[in-house]
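A reminder from the course coordinator: this example appears on the midterm review sheet, so study it carefully.

Given structure:
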């Protein structure tokens, strides 16, 4: 028995009988210059034949194709949808492939051995193929408050807490976020199915939310972040009606669980367009609801040090992603929260607290505050604090210190961070150059470099303890 709450248990519909073939009904959606609002009657989709679009099976992963064919041969409707179709239409390589079907999650599980059901708020099937996961979502329909029941839960403000009421392909198209994300590729006849005029928006380069913007953003405020993310990623213009609401409603993000916002932050800043994304988040007054301490610390001047450090860190992240180098949230958060930590350290230093304990105390309070907005798992916050505390140690290089630091597992990240601080004018360029040289120098040259350090450059702030006299080994 399939247990999906609210799922219509009628037998699977074969594609030939599906909504695609309905040609009757009340007119197609509005033209590209208007907001897309669903009419009261069934709308017939535009079916764009293979000859008129560029989506090709050659660009779809074999596993995604396998899932589509298998669901089809089990008698279910199944389409490729979302970012995969959008990106192929734009001539870009899709990041992943999402599939929509009329099979319930439980029915999907019955078809695939390698299937795992996930999510409570939004129940999904994941089909696992080694390193690739294909996400299969059951058609859902838009939420109407009066309809609240076991499958859906809507908060007073209109936010959807649970979204598990299943529907038809057409319902599914209308409840998606943006028109360009609601295009379906039908592997049975290679057509693209378009209920929401998404194809016109693809051509025009417009990002348009489906339906009434205020209602759709209230249902799920994360859509505001998604708007920014897609606009930055593909360079589309957010249409006027879709963007107007965002400026004044960043506060709606306060209701979103910190863990979900953390996931979203990673997508925003670790997808290769971090700089553009950051500019847009600030433009729409959204950044301050993700990183309020950072936002407060940035100051007025765009070329001021705190702002420059963040910008350079994001530029660096984008550059690394562009050449396939790994990036870590620890480094990203280290840069975003560095200025807040420095600000929190100041009164402690004035009270005479030593640098390192002051840093740790400041770090704890900044992290605690940040966790109210976006979570940051310990596996990232621990190395983040290490990157920070290494900044203090990189200043003192005398004796064996520099040699020991070089061996530190976090040295490379700490050095990269020091370079950003140098570029943004927070530390002397000479210190950065010294470390750059020290790393490549041979052993005698390194010894010489340390010897050359004047007493002032030898230590920075950190209290110098006198080493206790080494005990001589007995001569026997
Ligand atoms: P990406 O390239 O980042 O994967 P995507 O558009 O595929 O972009 P996903 O998060 O993978 O984004 O979601 C897949 C699809 O599910 C979207 O294209 C959209 O149709 C729908 N979707 C995802 N999140 C939402 C949401 N919050 N509200 C409405 N529809 C959504
Ligand atoms: Mg996707």
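Designed residues:
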């Amino acid at each position: 028995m399939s247990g999906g709450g609210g799922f219509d248990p009628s037998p699977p519909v074969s594609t030939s009988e599906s909504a695609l073939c309905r040609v009757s009904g009340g007119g197609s959606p509005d033209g590209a210059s208007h907001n897309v609002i669903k009419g009261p009657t069934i709308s017939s989709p535009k079916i764009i034949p293979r000859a008129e679009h560029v989506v090709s099976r050659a660009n779809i992963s074999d596993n995604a194709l396998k899932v589509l064919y298998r669901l089809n041969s089990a008698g279910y409707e199944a389409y490729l949808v979302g970012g995969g179709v959008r990106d192929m239409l734009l001539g870009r390589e899709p990041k992943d492939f999402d599939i929509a079907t009329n099979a319930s999650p439980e029915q999907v599980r019955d078809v695939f051995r390698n299937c795992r059901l996930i999510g409570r708020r939004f129940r999904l099937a994941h089909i696992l193929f080694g390193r690739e996961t294909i996400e299969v979502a059951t058609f859902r329909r838009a939420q109407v408050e009066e309809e609240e029941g076991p499958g859906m839960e809507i908060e007073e403000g209109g936010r959807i807490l649970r979204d598990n009421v299943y529907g038809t392909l057409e319902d599914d198209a209308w409840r998606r976020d943006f028109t360009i994300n609601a295009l379906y590729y039908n592997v049975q006849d290679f057509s693209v199915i378009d209920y929401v005029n998404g194809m016109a928006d693809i051509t025009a380069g417009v990002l348009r939310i489906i339906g009434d913007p205020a209602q759709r953003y209230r249902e799920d405020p994360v859509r505001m972040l998604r708007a920014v993310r897609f606009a930055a990623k593909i360079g589309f213009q957010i249409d006027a009606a879709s963007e107007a609401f965002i400026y004044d409603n960043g506060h709606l993000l306060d209701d979103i669980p910190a863990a979900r916002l953390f996931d979203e932050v990673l997508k925003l800043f670790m997808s290769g367009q971090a700089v553009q994304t950051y500019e847009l988040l600030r433009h729409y007054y959204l950044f301050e609801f993700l990183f309020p301490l950072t936002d407060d610390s940035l100051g007025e001047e765009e070329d001021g040090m705190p702002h420059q450090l963040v910008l350079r860190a994001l530029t660096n992240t984008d550059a690394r992603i562009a050449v396939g180098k790994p990036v870590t949230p620890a480094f990203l958060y280290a840069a975003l929260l560095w200025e807040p930590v420095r600000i929190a350290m100041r009164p402690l230093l004035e009270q005479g607290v030593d640098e390192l304990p002051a840093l740790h105390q400041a770090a704890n309070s900044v992290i605690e505050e940040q966790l109210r907005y976006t979570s940051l798992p310990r596996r990232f916050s621990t190395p983040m604090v290490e990157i920070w505390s290494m900044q203090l140690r990189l200043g003192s290089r005398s004796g064996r210190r520099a040699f020991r630091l070089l061996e530190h597992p976090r040295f490379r990240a700490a050095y990269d961070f020091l370079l950003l601080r140098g570029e943004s004018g927070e530390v002397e360029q000479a210190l950065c150059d010294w470390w750059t040289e020290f790393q490549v120098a041979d052993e005698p040259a390194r010894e010489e470099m340390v010897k050359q350090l004047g007493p002032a450059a030898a230590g920075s702030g950190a209290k110098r303890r006198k080493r206790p006299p080494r005990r001589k080994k007995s001569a026997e």
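Residues 292-458 form a domain with the cca-adding enzyme, domain 2 fold (CATH 1.10.3090.10). The longest helix spans residues 329-350.
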